Amino acid sequence: MNQTRLGQTELFVSEIGLGCMNLGTDEQQATSIIDEAIRSGINYLDTADLYNFGENEKIVGKAIKGRRDDLVIATKGGNHFEVGQDGWYWDPSKAYLKEAVKNSLLRLGLDDVDLYQLHGGTIEDPIDEVVEAFEELQQEGLIRHIGLSSIRPNVIKSFVNRTTISSVMMQYSLIDRRPEETMLDYLQNHRVSVVARGALGKGMLTDKGLEQWHKKGQDGFLDYNGEDLKTLVETVQGTATTFGVSPQSVAMSYALEHPTVSSLVLGASSPEQVQNNIEAYHNQPTYADIQPYLQQGLKEQIYQQHRA
Fold it and tell me: DSSP for 14-67?
């Protein structure tokens, strides 16, 4: 699998990463998914302390034991929760972030984490305080690089202007093209990588696209009403048929086309789903070939809120 450089770091991440949120709490099953991902060439694993209130990090930590040096491990923090208590709240304070990182490392069984990401954020947050916390954690050797998980242009630009951020995780796919308005080029110009989530469009950009549209898309999504979204799903499926590939392959080719997109973080609930994603990745048609076929049904999309 191809690997691309993450921002200006020394890290190279696989173009398909494993999003760990959907691993579940069955340790044996989750480990089999991680094993399949690594065997297939995935070296980038993305988790967060909030996933199953820390249990996800524990499972990931056990699964990667003995293989740490071959992997790029990313986690996230900023959602304050107490083990054994219901609920959580947003807490980007310096004190909490520094505590959260140390707790994540304990659960992961690691001395440091490759990429630590703020898990959300608003323009009202004490961004300078967050940056100070992250930079101190770097100096202490607990985190190697800083990232942000956000779809808010104003928050993203605030971080880019204040620190040496390496990556931004954002939603990006054929059905959510908002980053194309300005953010992809902006981040490329600042040598910040995009780690894309949602590249398969809630399953609507897969071989089960229409089935998923019936479940999730009849009321529309962003600028698409239900029927427009169905047309786009059918267009992707038709394009896939023309090139003898899966809709997943078409969706991946599209999402990986922009040079600032380093990796598509895809979830999996079984080893077979990992295999399907990897097969689709290796069978991608070139974007130049599929681009003319995708124009029908595509809408220009912009961020309506949180604009910089």
Answer: ESEEEEGGGG-S-HHHHHHHHHHHHHTT--EEE--TTGGGGHHHHHHHHHTTT-
Lowest mean pLDDT among 66-75, 80-89, 220-229: 80-89
Give the pLDDT confidence score for residue 40 in this predicted structure: 97
Q: How far apart are CA 170 and CA 261, in angstroms?
A: 10
Average pLDDT of every residue of the chain: 95
43 to each of 25, 102, 103, 185, how far by Cα in Å?
22, 23, 23, 26
Bridge partners of residue 193, in order along the sequence: 167
- Asked if the model's pLDDT at residue 140 lies above 80, the reply is yes
> Exposure of 17 by Cβ count < 10 A (0-12 exposed, 13-18 middle, 19+ buried)?
buried
Strands of the chain, DSSP E: 3-5, 12-14, 16-19, 44-46, 72-77, 79-80, 89-90, 113-119, 143-149, 167-171, 193-197, 261-267
DSSP-derived secondary structure letter, 124: T
Q: pLDDT digits over 246-273, tens only? A: 999 999 999 999 999 999 999 999 999 9
Q: What is the predicted pLDDT for the residue at 152?
A: 93
- For the purposes of burial, counting CB atoms within 10 Å of the CB of 73, is it exposed (0-12), middle (13-18) or buried (19 or more)? buried
Q: What is the mean pLDDT of residues 22-47?
A: 97
The token pair that represents 173 in the structure block: 């796919």
SS3 of residue 111 by DSSP: coil
Identify which of 77, 44, 71 has the alpha carbon closest to the alpha carbon of residue 261: 44
Of 27, 38, 28, the C-alpha closest to 73 is: 38
Of the listed 44, 51, 224, 281, which one is catalytic? 51
Confidence grade of residue 88 (pLDDT, cut at 50, 70, 90): confident
Residue 172 among the catalytic residues: no
pLDDT of residue 29: 97
- Spatial separation of the C-alpha atoms in residues 82 and 103, rounded to whole Å: 11
Burial 214-237 (b: 16+ CB within 10 A, else e): eeebeeebebbeeebbbebbebbb
